[in-house]
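DM from R.C. (forwarded with permission)

"hey, sorry to bug you on a friday — could you get me a structure for this? deadline for the figure draft is monday and I only need the backbone to look sensible"
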Amino acid sequence: MASVCKQSNGRKSIQFVGHDEKRKTLRLGKVPMKTAEGVKMRVEHLLSHRITKHALDRSTAQWLTEIEPALLKRLISVGLVDERESCRLEDYCESYYEMRKTDTKPNTQKKYRNALNYLYGFFGRDKMLKDITPGDCDEWRLWLTRKGLAENTVRKHCAVAKVFFYNAVRKKLIEENPFQDLKATSIPNKSREYFITAEEAEKVLNACPDAEWRLIVALARYGGLRTPSEHYALRWEDVNWIDERFYVSSPKTERYEGKEGRMVPLFPQLRPYFEDSRELAEDDAEFVIAKHRFGSCNLRTTMQKIVKRAGLNIWPRLFQNLRSTRETELLQEGFQLQTVVAWLGNSPTVALKSYLQVREDDYKKATQKATQYTAVTAEIGG
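My reply, with the result:
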């Protein structure tokens, strides 16, 4: 049994003997006697739950989700509540979200926030982590689909949920990750692939308004740079004219050890555009892209106008298609996959999944080679 103790200064506490047979005190501070008596009743229910191992009554379980965090911490400290039993979905997720703010970029934080809003929308903010089952997660995924979200969007939200709950497992707040079996890998959208030929690239370059814009396009099409982050990070001091290469700092991968940047060849198709821009730049210019950067220019809108001016239809992924075209092209020219991904700053897995394209010409070459092989074989046999 528990009892309410009142001090001369008006502060109240609950005294009880714990399941470990030690006398303990739960300090409540200056609260009304009615409140203290209510807490005393909950303490007795929690004691019975800890001693008998029977399921906690629904009323007390609900009370735990509604009390102030400070009181919950005191209940944990005196051994009445297990931390795993008391961890609310919102409390845990927001704590982990704040921790990850230090090592994630704004776009990633936005992705996390969107996924969390969907978690709260389905489960409720007060849902206990331990009460979320794999079956619940299946229903959440179906709920996302029924809300009209695209399959890849659903998979991205599932990936975030996996990350958050994997950390909860590591912190021993839950025993297993209920989101573990949900499909989270995005599906490549073949309809958004487009190979920009050298002829099309030339038309676009000729339609550019100035030398710096021609370099922006050339860096994406012939250098394989990510637009605009890697363009904006490029400095003139990064260009090694003698050894014909340049260093690309990569804001997207800089947080990974050894992935802060990479060396890229000063390809023959790319060098003239570098030289033109260098000739027009100020002697003390720091950045390669100086005129058209950040708030001074909407690259996407301007690029769309350039493509239209070139007499071409706008391809699905304006800048990414230029980058994936270069990766595909370099492999077709005979460079090894490991070499190409080192130049473009991605992994073989990512390259094979999202960048490399099979062109119509590839099928023609394959059948031509097969025909030639058949002819040679027939000649030898004859």
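R.C.: lifesaver. The radius of gyration is 31 Å.
me: no worries. Residues 89-170 form a domain with the DNA polymerase; domain 1 fold (CATH 1.10.150).
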